[in-house]
Write a structure and sequence with these properties.
Strand content of chain A: 25-35%
Distance between the termini of chain A: 38 Å
Structural class of chain A: alpha/beta
Oligomer: homodimer
Helix content of chain A: 10-25%
Number of strands of chain A: 16
Number of helices of chain A: 8
Strand order of the largest sheet of chain A: 3-2-4-5-1-10-11-15-16
Shape of chain A: globular
Order of helices and strands of chain A: EHEHEHEHHEHEEEHEEEEEEEEH
Largest sheet of chain A: 9 strands, mixed
């Protein structure tokens, strides 16, 4: 694990925006609460107003400012005014959409450099759906859902590189993506796979501890002992993959990426909810 | 593993019935080919003619006889003529439908005893979908699909007991059942979970070797090192489950239930198909 200094909040998409907003308010709190200055990057989305809903939410949740960094061309991504929004931010949020739009539009630009620099300086970076996948050095670029590992399920491409050694998939149980995540890890079992359910977040600390919050769980794929025949045969045939270790981590439990093990088991969060 | 003497052919449902019929013809061959006498148990289905299609197929595939053992009440299950069809069979086939219908109708009857006896004597027993799930001592009784382990996903009940120590789920990737299989295993990690895709079969030998044939793969859940909090909390909350070992086994590969490891990796089947 070589993660930069700041925490990453990888959200599995479809996070609650209208009720208790547990994940988004946790992000605002991590970004400084009443003094938070949040930069919103809606580039993954092709919808012109994708960022506007988040501006409203982050302000309602008490952030001091929430500004959209509107980048629709690679030229925009060198705009000094936009770069300064990032440099001045205490929290960065990437919306959902298509992660290739983010990497194709931002990769190698001053905006991407400024984001990585802020992350190194300790600023929390959050992303939902595509915005979560694009955080890692190698990301899922696309591919089909469905549970049986096949090569055609997984296409990978370079992400923003805010964290090495993980690969992040989202809408995980909702879109039945176990097979494609395990297939991606089988290409290089040095990677740890994180499959994040909707309305669920993996908060990845600089120390490699993952805290899970939200309604679903995070499936973690550890391929350290894995063997497979992914290197032979045809794209549409199922592959055999043995000795994959998986962990399902729910709210209140933590996972240590270095030790590759669950270190904390939920206690209070359960008791608290049961009492409600 | 305490399996009876004969092989079990657990099919994940929706096996090919009209083209190469690879799985069904393998079963006929194991039952004796041209001298096969096949007993068809359509009890899982509430459709009156569920067995008739299989009669035609098994005859087309060269079986000497294929007879329906029509049981619609527990009284039928003591019918001497029907018991004799089982006792005289060289292969037994259970259709899909609802596995509770099979266990509720046959459990503790002379038909169930005759089936277990034939299996002990070496006769292959095949089942598709519900007919596969009902083979084990403890079976999946129902529950919701979806990838995140939650207690409400899994309900279990007693099966026919042709094999101990496994629990069989079917239509596996098609219905996104990883979460419920892992949850079932977490209740008692002494069980090994088998999740079988459609048009795919796990052929379980008396020696505990599983051979996989068909279009998809078999997901095997080994909970020996598992830890979970399934024993605490609420039914609808996700559970945390760590250190689950899984294996995806595709056609041409074999898995050893005793050693809990893939022992054979596909070679010829791949090369043969690639050449087609």
């Amino acid at each position: 694990l070589r993660q930069r200094q700041g925490p990453l909040i990888a959200i599995g998409g479809a996070e609650d925006k209208f009720r208790d907003r547990a994940i988004l308010s946790r992000f605002v709190e991590m970004a400084g609460g009443a003094s938070a200055r949040i930069a919103i990057i809606p580039t993954a989305s092709s919808l012109p107003d994708a960022g506007q809903l988040y501006v409203s939410i982050f302000k309602e949740l008490g952030a001091a400012t929430a500004e959209i960094v509107a980048i629709d061309t690679r030229h925009d991504a060198a705009d000094q005014r936009l770069v300064e929004i990032i440099e001045d931010s205490t929290g960065i949020f990437m919306t959902g959409g298509n992660q290739i739009r983010i990497s194709a539009m931002l990769g190698g630009t001053r905006i991407a450099e400024a984001m990585a620099a802020r992350s190194r300086e300790g600023v929390p970076v959050a992303g939902t759906s595509a915005g979560a996948s694009v955080m890692s050095s190698v990301m899922i670029a696309g591919g089909r859902s469905g549970g049986t590992p096949k090569r055609q399920l997984a296409r990978m491409s370079p992400g923003l590189g805010l964290i090495d050694s993980v690969i992040i998939d989202q809408h995980f149980r909702e879109r039945n993506r176990v097979g494609r995540l395990v297939t991606m890890v089988s290409y290089n079992p040095g990677l740890i796979g994180l499959g994040i359910d909707e309305d669920t977040a993996a908060i990845i600390g600089a120390d490699g501890m993952i805290e899970v919050i939200g309604r679903g769980s995070v499936l973690i794929v550890d391929g350290a002992s894995m063997a497979s025949d992914v290197h032979s045969g045809l794209d549409r045939q199922p592959v055999t993959i043995s000795d994959v270790k998986i962990h399902f981590v729910a709210e209140g439990s933590c996972f240590d990426l270095e030790q590759r093990t669950v270190t904390t088991w939920r206690k209070e969060s359960r008791a608290r909810r049961a009492a409600q």
